[in-house]
């Protein structure tokens, strides 16, 4: 691996908002696949702009390797309305000349495969981008970056406006076809796990680096917070002992604390299952009765487009349903029917149904009120399952701190306004939740809080989302709109949906590149995807072992330095044994992974 970018004691801030990043030092190698996470407003996009040198730091230095080619997809994208698809994807109208494509459209099937994979089959080359939606423009710009060779690809929220199949295709493409390094900001946790081998967490004006993808970061952060809690508890105990010593006179004898890093399983040993499905179903039946929604021989249109053709479908109390489908498949149209925004012959809702509908557009919020007042306008106290919360407690779950709850609604960001709309919906205590892309603009911590809330919510829930992590976490049933005007039950969940999409696309050469590996039989060894994941984990474990070896060497040097201090030697020896135990666990993990790869 070779270093390509260095940040040396970099600081950056904007006027009255104060500093976002302070004394940040980082290095980026040519084989890194970095996922950048953090709360909204923490400075993630600012960090990306400094990596590209689009913005200079207030202090410190950003250095690039000579002749480094950096291409970036910003969060806010502006394309001249008179440009055509050909101008954007193959031309140099919006990118430096160094990134001009080296091939003609008609002669390179890879370009067409990229557009197909991003959900734009049959797109005309001479079609102007002016009339296109913001999502379509971003996908065309992303295609333009993917067709060009680069040393570093920087993507800010690339999965926005992609459906589940598009996100899956992009992850496969980056894993198999990208030759340079990657830095990506995204709230899509499945994507982070599928693509990244390191995580940068932007928080408290600092950037902390972790090995592994999203799951590894969660475990490492939990361990860090556990150690911090132990340290704070120890500090408080020391203070209490010091006060006791001052009051009693002679100091009491205390034993030295023993440090031991617990295995990941210990972190979750006392955590209950995400939800008790039987209890929640009973509660939902009590609140809803036996009938929620019945569709009998329903035909539904979105303008001239046929969405459902003679469809019969039943939604019962306590059902937790995910609706999957490509952009334009009709998910939002179906949700509006369930929310009674529209109507259709053959559709019936139960008499006790009290739905709450979160649309993609979002209902108008009272801009003249402050945030807490906007929640209390709906309810001052809310009962969610077995919990009763005040409006301020509910706001805190959604990431609004004591000071932020007094912010005028008109001054909230897009992500904060979406969180507030979710708050107001839940404050109304509905018994049916209908959510259309609820994760848009939410950071990973807020998503975790939302999912924890939905886990224990006792009602019927129908969610249309491209966030695979959310779907698999909070939903028990998956249905798909596959373009045949029917609602298909998918017992295999997201994996079955992707298999059907790939199967349907294959005859016409649809979302082809890169080709999907054949699914391995479970009795015949690991699948190709499992082997790739294992190889990534092997690299992570090897880096952790190297770091432990360096710490062991430092401990040996310290032991030699303090050879005559028996108390210090005992303390260092305890630390050395803890490191050796940790190394043993990592070696066992490495052996298991190596065995999986060799099968």
From TrEMBL:
Region annotation (Disordered) ranges: 504-526
| Gene Ontology MF annotations | ATP binding; ATP hydrolysis activity; DNA binding
Q: Which PROSITE patterns match?
A: ABC_TRANSPORTER_1 (PS00211), ABC_TRANSPORTER_2 (PS50893)
Q: Which organism is it from?
A: Catellatospora coxensis
Which residue range or ranges hold the ABC transporter domain? Answer: 5-229, 293-510
Alphabetized, the UniProt keywords read: ATP-binding, Coiled coil, Nucleotide-binding
Q: Which residues form a coiled coil?
A: 531-589
The protein's name in its UniProt record: ABC transporter ATP-binding protein
List the InterPro entries: AAA+_ATPase (IPR003593), ABC_tran_C (IPR032524), ABC_transporter-like_ATP-bd (IPR003439), ABC_transporter-like_CS (IPR017871), ABCF_ATPase (IPR051309), P-loop_NTPase (IPR027417), Val-tRNA_synth_C_sf (IPR037118)
Which PANTHER family does the record associate with it? ABC TRANSPORTER ATP-BINDING SUBUNIT, ABC TRANSPORTER DOMAIN-CONTAINING PROTEIN
């Amino acid at each position: 691996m070779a270093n390509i970018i260095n940040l040396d004691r970099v600081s950056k801030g904007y006027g009255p908002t104060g500093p976002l990043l302070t004394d940040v030092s980082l290095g980026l190698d040519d084989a890194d696949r970095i996922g950048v996470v953090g709360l909204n407003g923490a400075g993630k996009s600012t960090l990306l702009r400094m990596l590209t040198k689009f913005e200079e730091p207030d202090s410190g230095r950003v250095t690039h390797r000579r002749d480094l080619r950096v291409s970036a997809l910003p969060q806010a994208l502006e394309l001249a309305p008179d440009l055509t698809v050909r101008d954007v994807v193959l031309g140099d109208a919006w990118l430096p000349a160094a990134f001009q494509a080296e091939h003609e459209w008609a002669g390179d099937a890879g370009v067409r495969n990229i557009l197909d994979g991003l959900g734009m089959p049959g797109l005309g080359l001479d079609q102007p981008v002016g009339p296109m939606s913001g999502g379509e423009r971003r996908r065309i710009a992303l295609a333009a970056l993917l067709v060009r060779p680069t040393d570093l690809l920087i993507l800010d929220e690339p999965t926005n406006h992609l459906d589940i199949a598009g996100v899956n295709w992009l992850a496969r493409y980056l894993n198999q076809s990208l030759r340079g390094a990657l830095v990506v900001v995204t709230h899509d946790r499945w994507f982070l796990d599928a693509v990244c081998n390191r995580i940068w967490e932007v928080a408290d004006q600092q950037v902390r680096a972790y090995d592994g993808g999203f799951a590894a970061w969660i475990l490492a952060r939990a361990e860090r917070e556990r150690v911090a809690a132990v340290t704070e508890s120890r500090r408080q105990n020391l203070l209490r002992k010091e006060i006791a010593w001052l009051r009693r006179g002679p100091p009491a004898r205390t034993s030295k604390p023993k440090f031991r890093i617990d295995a990941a399983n210990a972190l979750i040993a006392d955590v209950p299952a995400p939800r008790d499905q039987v209890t929640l179903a009973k509660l939902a039946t009590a609140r809803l009765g036996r009938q929620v929604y019945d569709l009998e021989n329903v035909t539904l249109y979105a303008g001239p487009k046929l969405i459902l053709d003679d469809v019969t479908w039943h939604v019962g109390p306590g059902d937790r349903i995910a609706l999957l489908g490509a952009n334009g498949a009709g998910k939002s149209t179906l949700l509006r029917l369930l929310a009674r925004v529209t109507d259709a012959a053959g559709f019936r809702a139960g008499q006790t149904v009290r739905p709450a509908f979160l649309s993609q557009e979002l209902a108008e919020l009272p801009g003249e009120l402050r945030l807490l007042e906007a929640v209390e306008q709906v309810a001052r106290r809310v009962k969610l399952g077995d919990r009763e919360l005040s409006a301020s407690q509910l706001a805190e779950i959604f990431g609004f701190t004591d000071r932020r709850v007094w912010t005028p609604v008109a001054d909230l960001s897009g992500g904060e306004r979406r969180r507030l709309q979710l708050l107001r919906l839940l404050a109304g205590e509905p018994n049916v939740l209908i959510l259309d892309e609820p994760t848009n603009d939410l950071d990973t911590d807020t998503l975790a809080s939302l999912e924890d809330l939905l886990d224990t919510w006792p009602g019927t829930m129908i969610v249309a989302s491209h966030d695979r992590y959310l779907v698999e976490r909070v939903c028990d049933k998956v249905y798909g709109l596959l373009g045949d005007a029917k609602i298909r039950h998918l017992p295999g969940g997201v994996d079955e949906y992707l298999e059907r999409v790939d199967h349907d696309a294959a005859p016409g050469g649809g979302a082809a590149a890169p080709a999907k590996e054949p699914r391995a039989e479970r009795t015949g060894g690991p699948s190709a995807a499992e082997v790739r994941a294992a190889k990534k984990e092997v690299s992570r474990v090897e880096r952790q072992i190297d770091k432990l070896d360096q710490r062991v060497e430092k401990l040996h040097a310290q032991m030699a330095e303090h050879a005559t201090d028996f108390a210090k030697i005992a303390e260092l020896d305890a630390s050395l044994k803890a490191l050796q135990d940790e190394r043993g666990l990592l070696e066992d993990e490495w052996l298991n992974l190596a065995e999986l790869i060799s099968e």
